[in-house]
């Protein structure tokens, strides 16, 4: 059987059973309804694990399935540790997919995925992005939408950029196609309302950092015109952490050198190390 390009490492877990990735059936993870989480492993630790598992259950609840299914997070944590140990705890992302949610016994898949992280140069110089007209059906559910993902990936490839910033029907910026977006202006951080975006784990952590650093955060609808006078922007997410945006379409930004953005990047890396220390003690 041909190994699917997304799955990586030697072993995956299906409904609690460790299997060789050579046995992985790609079509099986395409069943719907389906929700998922992607979790990054750093220093052998699954980062912000509890928050990811809580969001997974929240996504399932928001789907409103008649069987009121809820994942046993303690049991899933044990399986995650089995997955990590079986594969030697590699420094990359793994994915949890829960599908067949309309049945009494949904399926749960755990597997490592091919992972790509920003380079040192991208953190130092920032990344290019484009505006892309699209909306999620229910932004708060981390659900699989294969067709939309494929269209966005094609647009990213055609434009040779890192990320697509989604714009809704009101010409308002909501989020990145696989990230959240924050905008800096006059010492204030702006971001789209929580109801309009996927509430990213990194997003929540960054907002917590802002409160700790006494940096005001405003959640409000953000028009495209708002970009004309902003000082900088960042992408936040599991893989990029906090990543400066150097351009959107043809508009340039000095995000990589903005003092507040540099402070947030440094503080977030420190936060990760604090979590790893607490997790391992």
Question: What features would you describe in this structure?
Answer:
The chain is of the alpha+beta class. The protein folds into 2 domains: 107 residues, 2-Layer Sandwich (D-amino Acid Aminotransferase, Chain A, domain 1), CATH 3.30.470.10; 158 residues, D-amino Acid Aminotransferase, subunit A, domain 2 (D-amino Acid Aminotransferase, Chain A, domain 2, Alpha-Beta Barrel), CATH 3.20.10.10. 29% of the residues lie in helices and 30% in strands. The protein contains 6 helices and 16 strands. Strands 7, 8, 9, 10, 11, 12, 13, 14, 15 and 16 form a 10-stranded mixed β-sheet that branches. A hairpin with a 2-residue loop joins strand 10 and strand 11. It is globular and about 55 Å long. The N and C termini lie far apart (41 Å). The mean pLDDT is 92. This is Branched-chain amino acid aminotransferase. Belongs to the class-IV pyridoxal-phosphate-dependent aminotransferase family. Its cofactor is pyridoxal 5'-phosphate. Keywords: Aminotransferase, Pyridoxal phosphate, Transferase.
Supply the key terms.
single chain; D-amino Acid Aminotransferase, Chain A, domain 1; D-amino Acid Aminotransferase, Chain A, domain 2; 2 domains; 29% helix; globular
What is the topology?
Elements lengths: L6 E8 L2 E4 L13 E9 L2 E2 L2 H15 L9 H14 L6 E7 L7 E7 L6 H6 L1 E7 L12 H14 L3 E5 L4 E5 L3 E6 L2 E4 L9 H12 L4 E3 L2 E2 L8 E6 L3 E8 L2 E2 L6 H21 L2
Parallel strand pairs: 7-8, 7-15, 11-12
Antiparallel strand pairs: 1-2, 1-6, 3-4, 3-5, 5-6, 8-9, 9-13, 10-11, 10-14, 14-15, 15-16
